[in-house]
Amino acid sequence: MQNVKNSFTPASYVKILSFLHLGILATPLILAVYFYFQIQDTHLSFSDSDDMFLAIVPIIAVGGVFLSDFLFRKIVKSIPSGMGLKEKLARFQTACIISYALLEGAALFSIVIFYNTQNFAYLLIGLFLLFYLYLKRPTKDKVEHQLNLQGAQKAQFGRVNQPLE
Length: 165
What we know:
Layout: H1 10-38, H2 53-77, H3 85-117, H4 120-135, H5 140-146, H6 151-158
């Protein structure tokens, strides 16, 4: 039997993070499409004074965006510059997942409220959040820039198929 060594490369890291991002993005998107086709009579209203969600959903959406970005930046800034690349990438992945989850939660909330109220405005807010989440998709260049990789770590991350130690 051959001994297979796990190799964690920069390319595999970006691929895994991309799959996580895609999975987090796909769930509310599929739900939005499903709900859209389940509802017969949708309407678009921004002035229904009886609908308390007209205040709640935008607050949660904006709060989700700001909290997502705030926590992401805070976690990434807390990564010590002397830490090894593999550990930096693990913390960066944690920051990304937290950021994605906050946006996903706000989008899911908007989409569920759309299903309950049949007000198309909530679906639009949810789709905006999903578009913003899509824009946060991870790439090699984004990871390198956001982690501010320099010198040997930048060179090591640039060798995409070489295992990280």
